[in-house]
Every structure is written in structure tokens, then in C-alpha cells.
Design goal:
77% of the residues lie in helices and 0% in strands. The longest helix is centred in the C-terminal third of the chain and has 33 residues. It is mainly α. Helix 10 crosses helix 15 and helix 11 runs antiparallel to helix 17. It has one domain: Growth Hormone, Chain: A (Up-down Bundle).
């Protein structure tokens, strides 16, 4: 693959590690501010809103500059968002600023693969990228949980920072954010050493109206292409479901497995282990031209999610999360590679990934909004379940959050299984185009 490819992986690892640790630090910070529980999905909505608003521009931005430089500038924006959260800006607004950097970063980190590697190595390269990102998710969750651990000795040695820099009170979540800032600095430094590859799809104009029309053209081009349709639809569904499922696992861990917040954050990392294993399996056994054949695995993943309703033992929970994560990695990695390949052929990888991010994050916002609505309706749902004779464990009344947890799991499982089944039936005979 070459040294340049491994530098790209290092930069991605550090940036993704910081992103995932920051999410848990921001959730903990919301709790210290006594924010309502539905603010947790709102936090991610603020983050992904940038992907939607900036989608017409970040693809062109990524394709008009060397992508290593784009990744460097994007990490600087993430660093500024973390700093804003540390300085007392609302976690929702500050995390939204981090989302601005992430929106610009994504087309560059995937688009550079198509510029550095031939099509035959894209599934392998994506597997490396996904596996390392998953490792970053695992260690990000572990790091976030560890930094939020009450009584951490390292925290006591840093309390002087808030006095020296006249920062707001350096409570435990803000201390975690301070450490995460260092990771973003490391990622930005690694970006400077990414090989300089000149863009091959630079636009002739950069005025906003032209970029909007160009984005709309790319959007229609991908959705009208059969291979673009199926790969775009699958990745859109996957990330929408995954964003909500990540938060549901936190509820599951605290509600039914009786974990602390620190333990719950680490449990979310377990599914990431499965995704890494599924990504490795996809690299070994799935060819780009047969990517559509993996969609039935997505149907099985939906049924695996339903297992959360009955599992109350942590060891069984670990097996369930690894299995569902492996299914996810096995079918989403080939779909990502297929989308990058078709996008690079038709319009430039940066453009296609911007369209992908636009669709994925509309899905994320929609499903997180539904999840927030289910949380808000927890009391009416408990009354409804009681009226039809459904009670909690051992016949006791449903406790707060239990009804919304059951409802969310069933809705998500049915949603992903039914849509994956329909997509496979519709596109299983579509021919691969080299």
C-alpha cells in the first residue's frame, strides 16, 4: 500500500479517536448541566446538521485542493469546537462546530483513497480504513469512559489548569475535553505528512450558486445510477440506524444490565469489535463486483437487534453486540467501496462522498428525531403497555425509559430488516460496471 497510505490511516485513527471520546465527554457535560434526557440525541443532531448544510460545498472543496490539506484544515475546526466546549459554550453549539470540521473531513479521507489506489484495492483499503476507525471507536469509548471515571488521579493533577488559564470550573467532563484537544493536535500534525496528490476533478467555478447546481447534478446522477442507488440507499440506512442504536445501547446497558455510565460507554465499543471483524471478512471474501450479494446479512442484523429485548446478562450481551457488529461491517464495507468506485467514475470521489454524507445525515437526523420523540413519549407508552397487559421483568410495572427502550428496539429492527430485504429483491440482478 505504501507509506502514504499508512500516514492517512494514522491521521484518521487519531481524529476518529478524538471524535468518539468527545461524544461521551459531551454527554457527561450535559448531565452535569442537568439537561433533559432528549438532549442526548439532540447533541448528535447538531453534529450531523453540518453534513447536510455543507454537503453542496465540501465535496467541491475536497476535490479542489490536495486532500491532505483539506484534512488538516478540518481537524483545526474540530479542535476549535472542542476548545469552545471547554471554554463554556453550550455543548450543543460547540459539538455542532466540531461537526463542521467532520463534514469537511469525510470526503477527503475517503476520496484520497481513490486518488492513491487502483479500483481493485478499494475494498481492501476501505476495510483497513473501517477497521482502524472501529478500533478508534473502541478506544475512544474506553478512553472517554476512563477520563470520566470519578476519582481519577490524573484529573487531580490538572485542576490547576482552570486557574492558570481562567477557564470555567474544570470538572471531570471538561478535563476529558482538555485531553481530547491533544488528540486533535496530533491528528492535525499527521495530516501535514500525507502525500500531496493533486486533485483530478477540480471545478471551473467556486461561486455558491454554481456549487449548489453542481451538487444537485451529482445528487441526481448517483440516485439515477442503479449501482449508485443501492450503495447510497444501504449506507444511508446503515448510518441512520447506527447513530440511534449507539444511544440505545447506552440505555440498554444502564437499564437492563445495570452498568454505570463508564461501563456503558465501554460496552458500546464491543459492537465496534464486531464491525472490525466483519470488515476483515469482507476484505477477504467479497469482491467489488459482487457487493450487492451481501445485503441479506443486513436482514439478519435486524433480527439480531431484537435480541436486546431479552438479554440481561452482560456476557450474552457482548456476544450479541459482536455478532450484530460483524454483520454490519460485512455488508457496509463493500457498499462503501462500490459507492466510492461509481462516484469516482462519474463525478469525483469528493463529490460522491458529499452526496453520501448528505443522505446519511438526513437519515441520522430523522431517526434521532424519532428516537427523541419516543423518549419524550415514555410516560404515555408505559400507560399504553400497562393497558394492554404488558409489564416489565417479573410482572413489575415498567420503569421510566423502559417503554421507550422496547419501542425503539422493535422499530429499528423492523426498519432495517424490511428495507434490506426490499433492496436485495430489487437490485440483486443489477450488473457491476467497471
Amino acid at each position: 500500500m505504501g507509506l502514504g497510505f499508512y500516514i492517512i490511516l494514522l491521521a484518521q485513527f487519531l481524529s476518529a479517536l478524538a471524535d468518539n471520546a468527545l461524544l461521551f465527554a459531551a454527554i457527561a457535560l450535559l448531565k452535569t448541566l442537568a439537561a433533559p434526557p432528549e438532549y442526548v440525541p439532540f447533541l448528535q443532531q447538531f453534529f450531523v446538521l453540518s453534513y447536510i448544510v455543507l454537503a453542496p460545498f465540501v465535496g467541491a472543496f475536497s476535490d479542489s485542493l490536495p486532500k491532505g490539506r483539506v484534512m488538516f484544515l478540518s481537524n483545526i475546526i474540530k479542535l476549535l469546537g472542542s476548545l469552545a466546549m471547554l471554554l463554556g459554550v453550550s455543548p450543543l453549539l460547540a459539538y455542532g462546530l466540531v461537526g463542521l470540521g467532520a463534514a469537511a473531513y469525510s470526503p477527503a479521507k475517503y476520496g484520497i483513497l481513490t486518488e492513491c489506489l487502483p479500483a481493485g484495492k478499494l475494498v481492501l483499503a476501505n476495510s483497513w480504513m473501517e477497521a482502524l476507525t472501529v478500533i478508534a471507536i473502541i478506544f475512544g469509548a474506553v478512553l472517554g469512559g476512563w477520563l470520566l471515571k470519578p476519582g481519577l488521579a490524573l484529573y487531580a493533577h490538572f485542576t490547576w489548569v482552570s486557574h492558570a488559564l481562567t477557564l470555567p470550573l474544570l470538572n471531570v467532563p471538561r478535563f476529558a475535553i482538555l485531553i481530547i484537544l491533544i488528540l486533535y493536535i496530533g491528528a492535525a500534525i499527521a495530516n501535514l505528512y500525507i502525500p500531496r496528490v493533486m486533485p483530478d476533478h477540480a471545478l471551473p467555478q467556486t461561486n455558491p450558486w454554481f456549487l449548489l447546481k453542481d451538487f444537485w447534478h451529482s445528487f441526481l446522477l448517483l440516485w439515477r445510477d442503479p449501482l449508485g442507488q443501492v450503495s447510497l440507499a444501504v449506507t444511508t440506512i446503515f448510518w441512520g440506524v447506527g447513530s440511534s442504536l449507539r444511544l440505545i445501547v447506552l440505555v440498554w446497558a444502564t437499564l437492563q444490565l445495570h452498568f454505570s455510565l463508564e461501563q456503558a460507554t465501554q460496552l458500546t465499543a464491543v459492537s465496534a469489535i464486531g464491525i472490525a471483524l466483519g470488515s476483515i471478512a469482507a476484505a477477504r471474501w467479497v469482491r467489488l463486483e459482487s457487493a450487492i450479494k451481501v445485503l441479506p446479512v443486513g436482514v439478519a442484523m435486524g433480527f439480531a437487534i431484537l435480541g436486546m429485548l431479552v438479554v440481561r446478562d452482560w456476557s450474552v450481551a457482548v456476544v450479541l453486540l459482536i455478532a450484530s457488529g460483524a454483520m454490519a461491517g460485512f455488508f457496509v464495507v463493500p457498499m462503501n467501496a462500490l459507492l466510492q468506485h461509481r462516484g469516482h467514475q462519474m463525478m469525483g470521489a469528493g463529490h460522491s462522498i458529499a452526496v453520501q454524507n448528505f443522505n446519511e445525515n438526513i437519515s441520522i437526523i430523522a431517526l434521532l428525531g424519532i428516537y427523541a420523540g419516543v423518549i419524550h413519549a415514555d410516560s404515555p407508552l408505559r400507560r399504553f403497555f400497562h393497558a394492554i397487559g404488558l409489564e416489565g421483568l417479573k410482572g413489575r410495572p415498567l420503569v421510566p425509559s423502559e417503554a421507550s427502550f422496547y419501542t425503539s428496539v422493535v422499530l429499528l429492527a423492523l426498519f432495517i430488516s424490511s428495507l434490506m430485504f426490499w433492496l436485495y429483491r430489487r437490485y440483486r440482478h443489477v450488473e457491476y460496471v467497471d
